[in-house]
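Check these lines:
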Amino acid sequence: MHNYVILSGKNLRTGLRESHAILLTDLVHVVDQREITYLTLKSTRMGIIRNDTYQATKMAMGQRDFAYFLDEANLSFALYITSTNVQALKVLLAYARQQHLISK
């Protein structure tokens, strides 16, 4: 098992595609709410929403309400739903559970 995972998606502020290499040992706390995951790392925080949920929510809300939702929920990254990302997220969550870093 690698000591890091790579997550690919879209930066919700810039709209640009990004990849993040996350060292598992940098995890401090993880909150997993199925469609939204919050990662607290040693040097930063990430609010991750699954891209399919992001798209559905964007369609259901007006632009202003959607932007407000992203800010209030502290979301910064839309995770593309690919087999690689799904597996990487599973590894990350399994590590967090094993290290007792996860909460719901």
